[in-house]
Amino acid sequence: MRAAAVQLQSTPDRDRNLATADRLTRAAAKAGAELVVLPEKWPALGTPEQTIAAAEPLDGPVAQWARSLARELSIDLVAGSFTEQGEPRHSNTSLHVSPDGEIRATYRKIHMFDVEVGGRVYKESANEAPGEEIVVSETSDGTGLGLSICYDVRFPELYRILAVKGAEIVAVPAAFTFATTRDHWEILLRARAIEGQAFVVAANQIGEHAPGIRSGGRSMVVDPWGVVLATAPDTETFVVAELDLERQAEIRRTLPSLANRRPEAYVWPSEIPA
Description:
This protein has helices spanning 14-30, 48-53, 61-73, 156-164, 178-196, 245-254; strands spanning 2-7, 35-37, 76-78, 82-84, 91-97, 103-108, 114-117, 120-123, 136-138, 144-147, 169-174, 199-204, 206-210, 213-216, 220-222, 228-231, 237-242. The chain is an alpha+beta fold.
């Protein structure tokens, strides 16, 4: 299987973002990609107010575009994520659309980005509610596809569960900040790939989206051994790589860390200090 990660510099301009996403997704499919992953909040990304203002229903324009394009190109499309309308708070939602244009799975981001990075405070939970469901889908050829979004990648327990539930590939649409991309992004992605013995297809945003809000790019594809197969340059583009599923099966057979787990010995402390 060939997989692609699309890297965008989204802004509050929805029409511009959509045109760029459409162009690069088509180019990735032309390059042989059968699975394409878009970044986080690609339809509209700016200040928190601008991003939230672009919220739309689950069956809105983003879903309709993704379904139509996946069907036309005959690809599995992880349509990054978008702000899904909700009450009283919205959701950060990712869709997996199959080559027949049907929504195969819906994932709502579980971990809220409530942090301080580079002197800037981010409070995702002010406008968005966390999801509650871990989601593993399947590509058109039956390959297990785990869904996650951005900040999720800092929580290894999620990715271990995705692997245990059958994920052979994990999609990571993201808008990783510039500072954390430079210091943490590749390390986290490679660690999640090694731990889950899974391919990781990580599509990040690049550049400035609004004053002081900047993403670091470096979208990449990582194999189950932790080897980076492709990395995007610092521009709007896509990267594509071959996913050798037979090699993955060999890794899982010869270094069976998933099979050698001992869940009965893993007891969470009753309280975990922050």
